[in-house]
Amino acid sequence: MDDRKHLVPAERMDSLAAVLGAIRNSQGMTQPQLTRLVGLGRSVVAARVAELETAGLVTQAGIGPSTGGRAPRQLRLRGEAGVVVAADIGATGMEVGVADLSGRLIEHVAEPVDIADGPEVVLGRVEEVVAGLLSRVAPGQAIWGVGIGVPGPVEFSTGLPVAPPIMPGWDAYPIRERMSRRWSAPTWVDNDVNLLALGELRTNPTAALAQDILYVKIGTGIGAGLVSAGRLHRGSNGCAGDIGHVAVAEAENVICRCGNAGCLEAIAGGAALAREGRRLAESGGSPAMAEILIATGTLTAADVTTAAERGDAAARALLARAGRLVGTTLATLVSFYNPALVVLGGGVVSAGDHVLAAIRESVYRRSLPLATRTLRIEPSSLGDTAGLAGAVHVVLDGLFDPARLARWLPYGTPAGRPELADGDVAVAA
Length: 429
Ligand SMILES: [Zn+2]
What we know:
Number of helices: 17
Helix content: 40-55%
Mean pLDDT: 90
Low-confidence stretches: 1-5
Shape: globular
Number of strands: 15
Strand order of the largest sheet: 6-5-4-7-10
Radius of gyration: 24 Å
Strand content: 15-25%
Bound molecules: zinc ion
């Protein structure tokens, strides 16, 4: 078949995508509201709505308030037209889920995983879990896309992991190719922190309002995701926000897992907290941490927080130092980038207030007043499914991008068209 026959003129596709975008982002919108919002003529909007209804993407949601005359119909995205598959793979655990086209998670499961087992084992398990979920909650449904998050750097245009430090065996593994072939659907692969930032942007109303956001994850490692003017900023290679490996003077004698000395993560990340906590416990510097070490035989970053909450001075000092170091780096980013909202996530932040308080203090002390006048620094409002939400939305944003929409809408559905995820389209945030 000659694809050219099916091409849709660009300006028509832009207006179609604008109308669809407005309907996607609302809880039911009338045609007059739509006309005001997208700034197109009434007849153009009516024609685009009719096209989207014919394509099965939009349907009537109810009747809107009348402004005199006949009450207008409310429109909504037909979320039930297809499903999106998502997996958020971490270093030690993964979330796998199925969502509808509105981004609502239909069902998801969490299970432990060891990323170091390599892609064959881990992705094999992802595929089994997805198959189980689909047969339970979406039998026979068309899969419109697949979103995968991994805990390492990803070249977004190709979906290939690039020398990921904690993912042995994954370097340049063709995750996208494998998944798109397995599910016969376009597949997007991204770094976990980018997906956390995107999940926050798309599902937290405060973040959606802020538009310029820095998401900082402090878990075992440290990383950040940047949202600029409502779009995820990945940088030219996809590694924007990799702040765990910026140099910190106090860490100059500490070797990082990346091979360099002096990285922020090597002194302020969860692994560093656990290592320092253990040293203090063994040297008699912290009675509370020594007690935990004797009782459990191990000491984690969460144990440092537990000890701090019991009033242990050494544990508190350790967390305060980590918070101050992250905060000082963040202050530089805040001056450089002027976000409206900094969201803090990851195990070290969610474990307690000590780190959060120290980060806030450093950022406010080290930044100029104009940059912090309206700046909010808040813990993530999303739970364990934040990364999964991001993995769902990276697919939906990709599919409904005007240029990509033009490539599949004439066929009715993107299901069965794995090549749609190719990096040749200016990728939506
Ligand atoms: Zn490093």
